[in-house]
């Protein structure tokens, strides 16, 4: 899940490959899983400190899960049998540090326990607000023109790309441009085109404005070493 309500869903998959594609960090529904490529012959010098930290932690997170001093289990969702998720889930903080997020705090941020009907209603309301925010962001960059609310909502819908590796901002901007109209009474401007850059900047601003951050902990479950973004749209 990705955070909804200011909540969650699995519509986004973020992938980043480190040097030599040795460490891959993938957000599967909002949480990073860290994988080490055991077939590589590169030595330790090939990795940054953060990559070594990630690989060391990943090797400690196999099932059956270990327990820290507080009695909390820690591991990854990938290794968890159904219904046996660990209390602390392996994640990468925004500062690049690898650690753990609390499943309880993640569930709260993502409204994981909310009834499906309430979750859908809350998400629809959130996306309506996000569309209005995106319209305002785009209208600021357009000269003598504006995008309709329908067009802004269409951009947000188009961002729900599932397993697509990249967002095609050019294609999204081209489609959304059909919903851009000149402002009444305003002189015609040369610069009214809705560009991929305008769409991307506006969308990322809205994502940042609606994102909830939860702590990333050391394995002890107490020491905060960073923060993890739980996106809302």
Number of strands: 13
Q: Regions with pLDDT < 50 over 5+ consecutive residues?
A: 1-44
Total helical elements: 6
| N-to-C SSE string, H for helix and E for strand | EEEEEHEEEEHHEHHEHEE
Distance between the termini: 11 Å
The chain-level mean pLDDT equals 78
Q: Biggest sheet, open or closed, and with what strands and sense?
A: 4 strands, mixed
Q: What's the quaternary structure here? A: single chain
Proportion of residues in extended strands: 15-25%
The computed structural class is: alpha+beta
What radius of gyration results from the CA coordinates? 21 Å
Q: In what order do the strands lie side by side in the largest sheet?
A: 6-7-8-9
- Indicate the overall shape: elongated
What descriptors fit this protein?
four-stranded mixed β-sheet, disordered N terminus, 23% strand, alpha+beta, 233 residues
Strand and helix layout:
Blueprint: E1 3-4, E2 7-8, E3 15-17, E4 23-28, E5 31-36, H1 49-59, E6 66-67, E7 73-75, E8 88-92, E9 98-102, H2 103-110, H3 116-141, E10 145-147, H4 149-158, H5 169-176, E11 180-182, H6 196-210, E12 212-217, E13 224-230
Parallel strand pairs: 7-8
Antiparallel strand pairs: 1-2, 3-4, 4-5, 6-7, 8-9, 10-11, 12-13
Helix pairs in contact: 3-4, 3-6, 5-6
């Amino acid at each position: 899940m990705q955070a909804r309500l200011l909540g969650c869903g699995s519509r986004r998959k973020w992938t980043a490959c480190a040097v030599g594609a040795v460490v891959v960090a993938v957000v599967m529904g909002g949480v990073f899983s860290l994988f080490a490529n055991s077939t590589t012959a590169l030595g330790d010098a090939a990795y940054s400190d953060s990559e070594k930290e990630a690989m060391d932690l990943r090797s400690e997170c196999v099932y059956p899960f270990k327990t820290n001093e507080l009695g909390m289990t820690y591991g990854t969702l990938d290794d968890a049998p159904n219904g046996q998720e660990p209390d602390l889930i392996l994640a990468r903080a925004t500062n690049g540090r690898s650690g753990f997020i609390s499943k309880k705090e993640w569930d709260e941020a993502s409204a994981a326990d909310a009834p499906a009907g309430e979750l859908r209603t809350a998400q629809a309301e959130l996306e309506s607000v996000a569309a209005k925010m995106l319209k305002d962001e785009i209208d600021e960059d357009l000269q003598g023109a504006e995008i309709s609310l329908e067009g802004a909502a269409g951009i947000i819908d188009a961002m729900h790309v599932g397993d697509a590796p990249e967002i095609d901002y050019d294609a999204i901007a081209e489609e959304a441009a059909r919903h851009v109209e000149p402002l009444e009474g305003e002189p015609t401007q040369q610069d009214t085109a809705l560009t991929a850059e305008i769409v991307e900047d506006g969308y990322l601003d809205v994502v940042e404005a609606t994102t909830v951050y939860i702590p990333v902990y050391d394995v002890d479950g107490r020491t905060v070493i960073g923060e993890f973004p739980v996106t809302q749209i």
